[in-house]
Specification:
The complex is a heterodimer of chains A (68) and B (472). Chain A has 68 residues and is mostly helical. Chain A has two helices and no strands. Chain A has helices spanning 6-17, 23-41. Chain A is elongated, with a radius of gyration of 19 Å. The mean pLDDT of chain A is 85. Chain B has 472 residues and is α/β, with parallel strands linked by helices. Chain B has a single domain (3-471), classed as Alpha-Beta Complex (Amidase signature (AS) enzymes), CATH 3.90.1300.10. Chain B is built from 16 helices and 13 strands. Chain B has helices at residues 3-6, 11-19, 25-43, 51-66, 109-116, 159-166, 183-189, 223-233, 251-254, 277-292, 308-330, 337-345, 351-374, 404-409, 413-418, 447-460, and strands spanning 46-49, 78-82, 120-125, 172-177, 192-195, 215-220, 263-267, 296-300, 377-381, 394-397, 400-403, 422-429, 435-442. In chain B, helix 3 (25-43) packs antiparallel against helix 4, helix 6 (159-166) packs parallel to helix 7 (183-189) and helix 8 (223-233) packs antiparallel against helix 16 (447-460). The chains are: A mainly alpha (68), B alpha/beta (472). At the A-B interface, helix 1 and helix 2 of A face helix 11, helix 12, helix 13 and helix 16 of B.
Chain lengths: 68, 472
């Protein structure tokens, strides 16, 4: 897979997210995204078919096995 | 006891003397203020020191205690807050230039709870800008220095909290932890830091980095002190819908249960690969000492945790950019370069990647929960390395080269993804004299057992009683 280019990111920032982003930040963003790209794809190794997203607002319930 | 010696008291020790009226909160607060005046110019732990406010509050506390209105073990104890906790009438910078003059009109819930417990606010502490980095390097207020070696970072993002507690510039502090920002500075500065269960401590009135990963937690010099602070902080808050209506136990009473019969896990994958051999040895020695105290130690496997780094990346970048979008559009030049570049990245994370990360998070949490039915807690290094030098970019350790941010957060950020409680306690020093942290992870809302293990280990800890040169 071709690495993510700063040109692509520049188009997205200008036309989609509309967050002004200078070249040095685009370079840093491309480096971070390329470094994480494979790891993000590997999330598919988890069996997520029947898994709903973890909620933002509700905390986990108290463990049914309880505290000591 | 001279004034300098007063800052060496733990919260537990000072509280006992204050309760018996053999120690004045005014004397204690004055000792801390004097110490701050002497060394903060070099250590840069505080962004704002509230000398007049603190002395007035100490005087009030003394009057209350004298007339018999003792509130409990934090009454008259000088503490400090990471400068992202809102404080009414006191500027709250979040370590940024953007908020350098912002004075909130309300207090964060945790500030209110410490105030109601009688704690004295000494000031607001330095931090990585907007809490977005694990080193504590700050281009706007200077970088807080590690009291064990001023040429090294204290760790972040709660850098000032780590420095201030370790250098005895406050008795205890609050930090926040989105990928390890309480536990990393605790480990690098040789102090105790707790990331409670997600939902245990209110985030209301705390400037967010990433809503679903942020936790607020205490940082102190002993585990018992952390228990005392958590007691004041924990509990449901209607202002924060993510807090849980789960009963808050007596944490101090749980400390002395001991570890006999406890089942302790050691997850080798991820946590014990590619790390400083001195860190590995110190943590395995700590596990052996805990076993010697009567616990049984067994290896466990947590393969799904290998995905936690990617999940954390997608969640933290997307959520932080969503929060900062307005400033990025209008005041981007006022961010430091490292934080602005990281915030820029979040606009390129796909919604599908974010949701996949949140689904992966649930799968990872399920696996860790299953492991925590077989063991009561598990142990890992807090960080795979000791404190790096101030200007470190990439670092090669154990034959592996990685960005310093990746090194520092590898063992902590998975536990933000799952939301379990995690404590960092000091467990040794490197040959170069730098602290090493042991991470203890437990079941949801079972901070009591995590603290109990930390407290038991503290009694046999090879580095107990060691202080950094700045506080020796």
């Amino acid at each position: 897979m071709a690495p993510i280019s700063t040109q692509l990111l520049q188009s997205i920032s200008q036309e989609l997210s509309r967050i002004p982003t200078d070249q040095s930040d685009l370079t840093g963003a491309a480096a971070q995204l390329n470094a994480q790209a494979d790891a993000l794809l590997r999330l598919d190794e988890l069996d997520l078919l029947n898994v709903e997203p973890a909620t933002v607002l509700l905390p986990p319930s108290e463990d049914s096995h309880g505290t000591r | 006891m001279g004034p300098d010696d007063l800052t060496r008291l733990s919260i537990t020790e000072a509280a006992d003397q204050i309760r018996r009226r053999s120690l004045s909160p005014v004397e204690l607060t004055r000792a801390y203020v004097n110490h701050i005046q002497r060394v903060n110019g070099e250590l840069l732990a505080y962004i704002t020191v509230l000398e007049e406010h603190a002395m007035a509050a100490a005087s009030t506390a003394e009057h209350e205690i004298t007339r018999g209105a003792y509130r409990g073990p934090l009454h008259g104890i000088p503490v400090a807050l990471k400068d992202l906790v809102l404080t009414r009438g006191v500027r709250t910078t979040c370590g940024s230039r953007i908020l350098k003059d912002w004075v909130p009109s309300t207090d964060g819930t945790v500030a209110i709870r410490l105030h109601e417990a009688g704690a004295i606010l000494l000031g607001k502490l330095n931090m990585h800008e907007f809490a977005y980095g694990p080193t504590g390097v700050n281009p706007h207020y200077g970088t807080a220095r590690n009291p064990w070696d001023r040429a090294r970072v204290p760790g972040g993002s709660s850098s000032g909290s780590g420095t201030a507690v370790a250098a005895h510039l406050c008795a205890g502090a609050l930090g926040t932890d989105t990928g390890g920002s309480v536990r990393i500075p605790a480990a690098l500065c040789g102090i105790v830091g707790l990331k409670p269960t997600y939902g245990r401590v209110s985030r209301a009135g705390v400037i967010p980095l990433a809503w679903s990963l942020d936790h607020v937690g205490p940082m102190t010099r002993t585990v018992a002190d952390t228990a005392l602070m958590l007691q004041a902080l924990a509990g449901y808050d209607p202002a924060d819908p993510s807090t849980a209506e789960v009963a808050v136990p007596d944490y101090r009473a749980a400390l002395d249960k001991g570890v006999r019969g406890l089942r302790v896990g050691l997850p080798r994958t991820l946590f014990f690969e590619r790390l400083d051999p001195e860190v590995r040895d110190a943590v395995l020695t700590a596990a052996q000492l805990i076993e010697d105290l009567g616990a049984s130690v067994q290896e466990i496997t947590l393969p799904a945790l290998l995905h936690a780094g990617a999940a954390s990346f997608a969640i933290i970048t997307a959520e932080s950019t969503a929060y900062h979008e307005g400033y990025l559009k209008t005041r981007a030049a006022e961010y430091g370069p490292d934080v602005r570049a990281r915030l820029a990245t979040g606009q390129f994370v796909l919604a599908t990647q974010y949701l996949k990360a949140q689904r992966a998070r649930r799968a990872i949490r399920t696996e860790v929960d299953a492991a925590l039915r077989r063991v009561d807690v598990f142990l890992t290094p807090t960080t795979p390395i000791a404190a790096p030098a101030l200007d470190t970019g990439e670092l090669t350790v154990d034959g592996h080269t990685e960005d310093v941010r990746g090194w520092l957060t590898r063992c902590t950020r998975p536990i933000n993804v799952t939301g379990h409680p995690a404590l960092s306690v000091p467990c040794g020093l490197t040959a170069g004299g730098l602290p090493i942290g042991l991470q203890i992870v437990g079941r949801y809302f079972d901070e009591a057992t995590v603290l109990c293990v930390g407290h038991a280990f503290e009694a046999v800890n090879p580095m107990r009683g060691r202080r950094p040169p700045e506080a020796a």
